[in-house]
Amino acid sequence: MSFQAPKGVPEYFPPRSATFLAVRAAFATAAQNAGYSYIEVPVFEDTELFARGVGESTDVVTKEMYTFADRGGRSVTLRPEFTAGVMRSTLEHGLHHGQLPVKLWTTGPAFRYERPQAGRYRQLQQFNVEAIGTEDPAVDAETIAVAWSGYQALGLSQVRLLLNTLGCKQCRPAYRAALQDFLRGLDLDEATRERIEINPLRVLDDKRPEVRAQVENAPLITDHLCASCKAHHDRVRSLLEDLGVPWEDAPRLVRGLDYYTRTTYEFDHPLLGAQSGIGGGGRYDGLSEDIGGPPLPGIGFAVGVDRIILAVEAENLSQEAPARVAVYGVPLGEEAARRMFRLVSELRAAGVSADMAFDGKGLKGAMKGADRSGAAYAVILGDRDIAAGAAQVKDLASGDQTSVPLAEIITTLKERLTP
RNA sequence: GUGGGUGUAGCUCAGUUGGCAGAGCGCCAGGUUGUGGUCCUGGAUGUCGUGGGUUCAAGUCCCAUCACUCACCCCA
To answer: Which UniProt keywords apply (predicted)?
Structure first.
């Protein structure tokens, strides 16, 4: 076969795809339980939305976007993240004109043109939660709790929560200037020196040891917070404490998107190698205005479904493939195949999952199919049985087999399958 | 964008100083002509990533190229 999946695009097929759905379901349940509603937003948007929303100084915008001209000459971009699109949709449809906050969740693929590696893909699957129109630190803590319960529901026990604040429009500029003063005095490579001028906070997050050593004594935002940011941050932390969600203060934690303000956080998993961030979020109080909307604060997170799958596997939590069906039909001969096809359909209509052997398979092959389907019962039907007006119902676990009149097959199986 | 590693059966991988292309798992069939899962026996499947070079002879050595992969950077 001469085709292969595009570079950097992971695919999930059975049995592993079950874990994919389980991860989504765990977070969807957590979000729904906390009163978040589903929103479906476009996979591509006007390029300008991301440029302004995510930020011109970010790597995501400057070198990682899948941007192209459509046939009408418009520049569109496959979403590199969800928050800008969710905010745009909220503003466009006036969701914020009702009671606030607007609490939304969404999920699907996002796209970034990067060199793939373990846990880093060009098409990545995210699960997002956004609470728009609130400054209440309790909602900051709520979003963290929602993500946390998603991880818990999957059984992950090694997730670390790193928490920081980035200050706000009032206090960040002064801190930024102080940080730049400090960083300009260091011995750094050219790319990093440029970053000092564009986005100095990100230098703090550099993972290279030689950089880390030098920023050891850099001024920290936590020492430069205004009174309201400090109160906000303290409140978030004390609420987390009330909930029993453990966190680590990470005063050097910076997120890569420009819109973050105040609360920022990241979930890490120690077993994943270089790309250990399995989720991250924060407050984006200026985003609405950045894209031409009214002042409208917000807080939310994205978790990486692909990386969570890796974490689930690293902690050996992958579930065994569930039985595909409860009943499997084994027809012998043309007439039996026709009757079985209808019986299987009737079983499904009666709420009993069922499959059957096709292609005129022989008894041995069909029974093998029954075994692999994970079915609890096989229904065997041959000419002999049709003549007798009955089918053989075999309990595949015990091997016991009984003859059941055709008219009673469905009720018998329903009964036996009900615990 | 930068650097390292790896390409052999459907999958995971072995393949010696260059000398007949292999194993396990899976798949198919038979043992059992109406019975799966265990067991036994047998069977099929390869442009050895691709192109070139060296050699009597290349999976093995050399060059190029492509793909995959890990890491930097960045982020979910």
So the answer is: Aminoacyl-tRNA synthetase, ATP-binding, Cytoplasm, Ligase, Nucleotide-binding, Protein biosynthesis
Distance of C1' in B43 from CA in A334, Å: 29
Q: Which residues of chain A register pLDDT less than 70?
A: 1-2
Residues 131-170 of A with CB under 7 A from strand B: none
User: Is residue A6 included in any domain, yes or no?
Assistant: no
Contacts of A415 (CB under 8 A, 6+ apart): none
Q: Are residues A338 and A282 in the same domain?
A: no
By residue range, what is the domain housing residue A366?
A: 327-417
Q: What is the pLDDT of residue A218?
A: 87
Same domain, A24 and A80: yes
Tens digit of pLDDT for each residue in A215-246? Answer: 888 898 889 999 999 999 999 999 999 999 99
Statement: the CB of A360 is under 7 Å from strand B: no
pLDDT of residue A1: 63
Question: How many domains does chain A fold into?
Answer: 2
* CA A212 distance to own-chain centroid: 31
ipTM: 0.86
| DSSP H or E run through A174 | helix A172-184
Residues in chain A: 419
Whether residues A301 and A348 fall in one domain: no
H helix runs in A44-82, sequence order = 47-54, 59-63
Rounded Cα gap, residues A357 and A366, in angstroms: 5
